[in-house]
Amino acid sequence: MLRCEECGTGNSPANLYCASCGAILDPPSRPDMRATQRFPAELRWETEIPLATDRFMLYDTAKVLLFSAMTVISVGSVIALLMGGASAPLAEWLLVFRIVGLVFVGIGVALLLVMLIFFGNRFPVRITLEPRGVRWEARSRRGKWANRTAIVAGLLTAKPGLMGAGLLAETRSTEGMRWKDIRRVRFHPQLCVISLMNSWRVVLRLHCPPTLYHQVCILIRTAAPHARLEGVVA
Amino acid sequence: MRELLRRVLLTAGFLAAAWYFWYTPATIIGARVLDLEGEYQARVARRYVTPQSNAPAKPAGSSFVRNHSNPGSPQRYRQHVLESRPLPHELSLPASWVKSLQDAAMGNGPFVGRRHRNLVYFSADEAPLEAVASPLRKSLGLTGFVNAYMTVGTHDLEFLIFPEPRSSDAPSAVMYPQRALAIPWALGALALYALLGWPARKDVRYDPVPVAVLDVVAAGGAAFLWALPLRLAPSTAAAIGDPIGGPVWFWTIALLPVLALLSLARREAYGIVVTPEALRFRSLFRTRIIPFTDIQAAATETPDAIQSTITLQLRSGEKLRLPWAGMQGLLSLVDTLRRYGLLHAGPFSTS
Questions:
Q1: What 8-state DSSP symbol labels residue B327?
Q2: Which residue, of A4, A132, B76, B90, has the fewest CB within 10 Å?
Q3: How many C-alpha atoms does B323 have within 13 Å on its Cβ side?
Q4: Is B322 in contact with B310 (CB distance < 8 Å)?
Q5: Residue of A nearest to B331 (CA)
Q6: For residue B190, what are the contacts with CB-CB under 8 A and spacing of at least 6?
């Protein structure tokens, strides 16, 4: 029986969270697990991440677009002020805001269409938990095809931007994170998703099969005991 | 049905909002009080000043034109302008209305918001201008706009009729008179969408957050595409009067986001309620209850090593596939299936 440090309720040894208050049962309060749980050589699964219907994908896309738009608006506003003088700074700024806003709304809609039409709202990935860390690999054939087409088309048409985009996407098709680099772990049990973060941002999101979620949680907590744990069972 | 109704209300509200946002009157009239004598002094008289003897010689033709088009005096100039395109004499306008028109030129009075440069704009069907609009329309040929003059009391008035409102410089208050209604309609639609009631949080169902985001994007896209011809045509009446010339194509494209909304309704309606005795499957139009005693086994399927479904094998031989990507609350279903001893080993490989 595990005792919750928050409310004192006794919990089953299999529980990651207190059945009464939902608090995470800290590894120190689970000495049996620390002692007996051995990290398997490798734990691997393949799954399909929904794209346009995944809240994390939408949030990350919106975050990147907003950040880019704000950067462009800031630079554009400064240029407009310098070029147009201070006669009507608000009008200049509003014009820049409207133009950039429209462009980024267009990009957002285009990205949604690509997710839905080109990828069919599914993106296959393989996730591997291994003794060194976590590895995330894109398994989408369409994605690989698009990346390579962009590289070749960029080469043939002498467009370094297109080629660079393809190369960038290709290099990002495999990502990893070492256990020691994980600073925070946020659990989303309602969606069976685990976010692994360094000191300032989310590096990887692990979409787990529901049958595997608890096991992945235990492994991560065992392998990265120094990481701050966030989130409760909904 | 609730999910369908939710989206119908959202789309209808957004369509109404787009309609009100871009609705224009069929015809716009610009009016101003003329100061023809002042205009003569400022613009006309200078043209007919006798050239100085040391000025450069002008071609003979220009002095001919000058001599034969010279109105001669402010009074003759006024008469010449007013008689060039007069409105019927029997028409009259209230003196208070003319006074408001005069005040607007000075920057005050009730018509200030309708003024742009030296013209004050009105919808052609607004009182008291509907009487003026009719003879003005008659004098329209193929021109984009036409002007005419009348005298009310001691004031000379000029009217310009714009059968294509977007070719005028009318302020938004006149060009888009219903625009203030757009935001309440859109907000009302969003409020109805949100307040119509949602499935219980503990139910197994698709994550409602991205579905709600996509609903708003799809309804907004449908409304935008539906209303775009209203914005591109010279006026709302022109867009509706000639649907084959453009609007129908946009409205056909607008069906795509509507289809996406139907798909989202189907997705949002899908859910599984776990009860102590059975699983209740909910879809858009029906509910199916499967007691645990009817389930032979449950397993995660691994076609091509991709784990994306949990398959229920029923005693009747039927197989039910439950997709889990993007769904929430599945842990309770998995726990329940495990508790009943129905779930087979997990779909992962360890080595």
A1: E
A2: B90
A3: 12
A4: yes
A5: A210
A6: B10, B13, B216
Interface check for B267 against chain A (CB to CB < 8 A): the answer is yes
pLDDT at position B181: 92
Q: Give the separation between CA B226 and CA B11, rounded to whole angstroms.
A: 11
CB contact under 8 A, B348 and A44: yes
Instruction: State whether residue B256 sits within 8 Å of chain A by CB.
Output: no
Q: How far is CA B256 from CA A3, A7, A139, B215, in A?
A: 55, 53, 29, 13
The length of chain A in residues reads: 234
Smallest Cα distance from B209 to chain A, Å: 6
**Rounded Cα–Cα distance for residues B284 and A21 (Å):** 35
CB contact at 8 A, B120 and B142: no
Q: Is-contact B27 B139, C-beta < 8 A? A: no
Find residue B154's DSSP bridge partners: none
Each residue's pLDDT, cut to its tens digit, for chain A (234 residues) gives: 677 777 787 776 656 566 676 666 655 544 444 434 556 667 888 888 888 889 999 999 999 999 999 999 888 888 877 776 666 677 777 888 888 899 999 999 899 888 888 988 888 888 888 888 898 988 888 888 999 999 999 999 988 899 999 999 888 888 888 888 899 999 998 888 999 999 888 999 999 888 888 888 888 888 888 888 887 643
How far does Cα A27 stand from its chain's mean position?
25
CA distance B168 to A143: 50
Q: What is the mean pLDDT of each run of 10 residues along chain B (351 residues)?
A: 90 93 88 82 66 58 66 77 76 80 82 84 82 73 72 83 83 88 94 86 86 92 89 82 78 90 90 88 88 84 62 84 82 84 56 36
Residue A206 pairs in a beta bridge with A194
Q: Is B150 exposed, middle or buried (0-12, 13-18, 19+ CB in 10 A)?
A: buried
Q: Which residues contact A227 (CB under 8 A, 6 or more apart)?
A: A182, A183, A184, A185, A220, A221
Q: In whole angstroms, give the CA distance from residue B66 to residue B79.
A: 18
Q: Percent helix, strand and coil across chain B, each rounded to 5?
A: 50, 20, 30
Considering only alpha carbons, which residue of chain B is nearest residue A122?
Answer: B325
- The pLDDT value given to residue A27: 52
At residue B314, φ and ψ (nearest 5 deg) are: -85, 160
Gap between the Cα atoms of B257 and A149, Å rounded: 29
- Among the residues of chain B, which ranges form H helices? 2-22, 36-39, 60-69, 74-84, 95-105, 130-138, 172-175, 182-195, 208-232, 236-241, 247-253, 255-269, 330-339
Q: By the CB < 8 Å criterion, does B346 face chain A?
A: yes
Residues B201 and B332: beta-carbon distance below 8 Å: no
Put simply, whether the predicted model's pTM sits higher than 0.80 gets the answer no
A52 contacts in chain B (CB < 8 Å): 210, 214
- Own/partner contacts of A86-94, CB < 8 Å, gap of 24 or more, are none
Cα separation, A80 vs A93, whole angstroms: 7
User: How do B146-152 and B155-162 pair as beta strands?
Assistant: antiparallel
In which residue are the tokens 């991440």 written? A49
